[in-house]
Amino acid sequence: MHIVCLDLEGVLVPEIWIAFSQRTGIPEFARTTRDEPDYDRLMRFRLGLLRQHGLKLADIQAVISGMAPMDGAREFLDGLRARYQVVILSDTFYEFADPLMRQLGRPTLMCHRLVVDAEGFVAEYRLRQSDPKRHAVNALKSLNFRVIAAGDSYNDTGMLAAADVGFFIHPPPGIAAQFPQFPVNRSYAELTAAIDSAAARLGD
Ligand SMILES: [Mg+2]
Fold this sequence. Notes:
Layout: E1 2-6, H1 16-24, H2 39-52, H3 57-64, H4 73-83, E2 85-93, H5 94-103, E3 108-116, E4 122-126, H6 132-142, E5 146-151, H7 157-162, E6 165-169, H8 173-178, E7 184-185, H9 188-202
The protein binds magnesium ion.
């Protein structure tokens, strides 16, 4: 049995924080894991910035509710789900993801939670565990699944390394160059073909 693990942002949906940056006109929100590989430092920076600008969870949710998956993402995902079990492994938060997951047909999502204070500000974030994508892949392998994974950024490399086969899909050139062991795909069609041939190669 094969399970396909996919990253969410930058793979199936646009980067939520970049959309938020564009909507608020605050350029500092556009910093992502592509720019800052230390996720904890990145999140502390974001929470500080939200507080500084008086922005609450509801402001972020308002932006997200106006977002849509990338062109072709739903069809790509539906096609995969017809042939494989698919799990989305993301460093986003359940409080953010819902409008987008609805548009994607609600695949299984493993991500994190936010802690919101009485005034509606994001007070803290709770990672479900450290290095969660790698742990999820290793857990699935321990259940005798063969895991094929695809992501676009630094925070996916643990997942790609742990998987039986790992792929990039449209990564920034710098990141692809740093991890040449993961083949690069430029479109959903290419990635679908790569996943199919990896699954055939891995066998049952
Ligand atoms: Mg990503």
